[in-house]
Amino acid sequence: MAKPNSKKIAVILFNLGGPDKLASVKPFLFNLFNDNAIINLPQPLRFLLAKLISLRRAPVARDIYEHMGGKSPLLENTEKQAEALDKVLGKNFKCFVVMRYWHPFSAETAARVKDFGPDRIVLLPLYPQFSTTTSASSLEDWAKAAKKEGLGAATSGICCFPTEKNFIAAHTEAIKPLLINSIKAGPTRILFTAHGLPEKIIEKGDPYAWQVEKTVAAVMASLWRQKEFGGKPLDYVICYQSRVGPLKWIGPSTEAEIIRAGEDGKNLVVAPISFVSEHSETLVELDIKYARLAKANKIKHYTRVPALGDDQGFILSLQRMVENALSKEAINPAAGNQICPADYVRCPCKESGK
Question: Cα–Cα distance between 191 and 273 in angstroms, integer?
Answer without folding.
Answer: 9
